């Protein structure tokens, strides 16, 4: 088992509290099943469904859409595995580990960018999930939609009530900390698979067999197809780009490296591909049944006009979306805010603050604009990619897979740099972001934007390694320097 002592010598109070400290051995209880179900919960949700389904709406056929999903998952799991190892080894969250490359003060900026993105996605997922709440209430109260006549701040009263109920469900799960999150994920993740199989069965019946679902012709070819294909891959990566950074927030609880590697392999590439395959087949069924692609699963359920189907399906979607939102978009910003104010915040308080801030993103004003969503996804990938590249290269090449834990909680340790800032990391991040996003502003380089996440992570990591090449001459710690394993 690759874990090290959780003892921190003389930590600085401004950099340390119990939520940021290394997780002790007795609390590292998450096994491969936990990680499998957590990832099931994160990938089986309304937003993931819509993004996979929208590939058909863009003009791809079933096989082209599925290929985009598979490629994005292969890239994601590789990056996530690379950034998971340090979290498992040291029991530390992302906001602490990133101090190694950016410095104890310099880490605040990328941490807050990641928190901003996480809270943004919380708002988007909360709005998407609230539609399932509305579908459930509409079965119980037939006059539900009539409340839409009362509207304010861009949303009808029935939508405000749905959004409020879903928001309170998040608060209930968060209020009891990470253990409630773990237990919730154990049954929430697999639930939506049952709904997915049911809708796939409907799609096959509606199409008159499996063959017609795969015979739907795409409208893209040549250069337009490849541009759309790689832009879609980048967008799909952008959905989980925050997880590449903050995966240590979860793997710090792992019993071993093997548990997190095996569990994540099952939960992300395997289950995401299965879920996307379901999404694409169901959407193909809607094209045949209704003459147009319906990408929102709640809208599909409403087409059945059957109370039991709507009720059970909407409950499954609600639980699935709540699941991903807690793990991916509340846990991570919570640790980020604790890192910013360790003396005043703990995990629960920071989690509550995150979901309050999320209300101000007003997702109901922009969520249904697909072009806006993909532009945002691309910008997210381009911004976070360089940070991921810097973290990965720092751990594997600059630090040779060894961090001095006490220095991560000290202002005089290995990671103090220049008054707590590492200029090399900021230069590498700036170069990586410019390289990733330049295609947005220079038409002649628009093709670069198609690959912006790949460009960002590679350029950011390479520039950082070159700037820190002096650190590469440091020897691997001797046996005397290594801390005892537990």
What are its keywords?
single chain; Hydantoin permease; 486 residues; two-stranded antiparallel sheet; mainly alpha; 69% helix; 22 helices
Overall description:
The structure is a single chain. The protein contains 22 helices and 2 strands. Helix content is 69%, strand content 1%. It has a single domain, classed as Hydantoin permease (Orthogonal Bundle). It is globular, with a radius of gyration of 23 Å. The protein is mostly helical.
In short:
The protein is mainly α.
SS-based class: mainly alpha
Note the beta-strand portion. Answer: under 5%
CATH class: Mainly Alpha
Summarize the biggest pleated sheet: 2 strands, antiparallel
Number of beta-strand segments: 2
Number of domains: 1
How would you spell out the order of helices and strands? HHHHHHEEHHHHHHHHHHHHHHHH
Query: What is the tally of helical segments?
Result: 22
Average of pLDDT:
83
- Percent helix among the residues? 55-70%
CATH-assigned fold name: Hydantoin permease
Unreliably modeled segments: 475-486
Architecture, CATH level 2? Orthogonal Bundle
Radius of gyration based on Cα positions: 23 Å
Shape field: globular
Provide the fold topology.
Layout: H1 32-43, H2 46-57, H3 62-90, H4 94-97, H5 99-102, H6 108-140, E1 151-152, E2 155-156, H7 157-174, H8 177-207, H9 210-214, H10 222-239, H11 241-246, H12 248-251, H13 257-290, H14 297-303, H15 307-329, H16 331-340, H17 347-358, H18 370-398, H19 405-408, H20 423-441, H21 446-450, H22 452-467
Antiparallel strand pairs: 1-2
Helix pairs in contact: 1-8, 1-13, 1-15, 2-3, 2-13, 3-10, 3-13, 3-18, 6-7, 6-15, 6-16, 6-17, 7-15, 7-17, 8-13, 8-15, 10-18, 14-15, 16-17, 18-20, 18-22, 20-22
């Amino acid at each position: 088992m690759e874990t090290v002592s959780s003892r921190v010598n003389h930590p600085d109070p401004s950099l340390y509290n119990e939520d940021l400290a290394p997780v002790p051995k007795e609390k590292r209880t998450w096994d491969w099943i936990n990680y499998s179900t957590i990832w099931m919960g994160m990938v089986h949700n309304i937003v993931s469904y819509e993004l996979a389904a929208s590939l058909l709406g863009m003009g791809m056929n079933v096989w082209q859409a599925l290929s985009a999903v598979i490629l994005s998952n292969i890239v994601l799991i590789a990056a996530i595995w690379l950034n998971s190892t340090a979290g498992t080894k040291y029991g530390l969250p992302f906001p602490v580990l990133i101090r190694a490359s950016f410095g104890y003060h310099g880490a605040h900026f990328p941490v807050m960018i990641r928190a901003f993105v996480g809270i943004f996605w919380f708002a988007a997922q909360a709005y998407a999930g609230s539609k399932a709440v509305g579908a459930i209430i509409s079965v119980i109260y037939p006059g539900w939609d009539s409340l839409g006549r009362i509207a304010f701040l861009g949303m009808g009263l029935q939508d405000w009530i749905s959004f409020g109920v879903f928001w309170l469900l998040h608060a209930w799960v968060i209020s009891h900390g990470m253990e409630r999150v773990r237990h919730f994920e154990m049954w929430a993740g697999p639930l939506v698979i049952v709904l997915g199989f049911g809708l796939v069965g409907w799609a096959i019946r509606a199409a008159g067999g499996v063959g017609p679902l795969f015979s739907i012709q795409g409208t893209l070819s040549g250069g337009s197809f490849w541009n759309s294909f790689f832009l879609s891959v980048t967008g799909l990566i952008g959905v989980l780009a925050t997880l590449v950074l903050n995966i240590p927030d979860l793997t710090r609880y792992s019993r071993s490296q093997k548990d997190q590697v095996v569990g994540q392999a099952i939960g992300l590439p395997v289950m995401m591909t299965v879920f996307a395959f379901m999404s694409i087949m169901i959407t193909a069924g809607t094209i045949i049944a209704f003459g147009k692609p319906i990408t929102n699963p709640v809208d599909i359920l409403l087409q059945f006009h059957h109370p039991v189907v709507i009720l059970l399906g909407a409950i499954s979607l609600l639980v699935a979306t709540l699941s991903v939102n807690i793990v991916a978009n509340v846990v991570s910003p919570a640790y980020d805010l604790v890192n910013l104010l360790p003396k005043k915040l703990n995990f629960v308080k920071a989690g509550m603050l995150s979901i309050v801030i999320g209300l101000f993103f007003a997702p109901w004003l922009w969520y249904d604009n697909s072009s806006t969503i993909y532009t945002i996804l691309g910008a997210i990938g381009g911004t976070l990619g360089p940070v991921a590249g810097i973290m990965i290269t720092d751990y594997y090449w600059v630090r040779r897979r060894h961090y001095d834990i006490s220095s991560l909680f000290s202002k005089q340790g290995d990671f103090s740099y220049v008054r707590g800032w590492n200029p090399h990391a900021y230069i590498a991040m700036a170069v990586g972001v410019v390289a990733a996003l330049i295609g947005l502003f220079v038409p002649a380089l628009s093709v670069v934007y198609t690959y912006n996440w790949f460009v960002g992570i590679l350029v950011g990591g390479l520039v950082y390694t070159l700037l820190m090449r002096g650190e590469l001459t440091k020897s691997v710690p001797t046996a005397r320097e290594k801390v005892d394993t537990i």
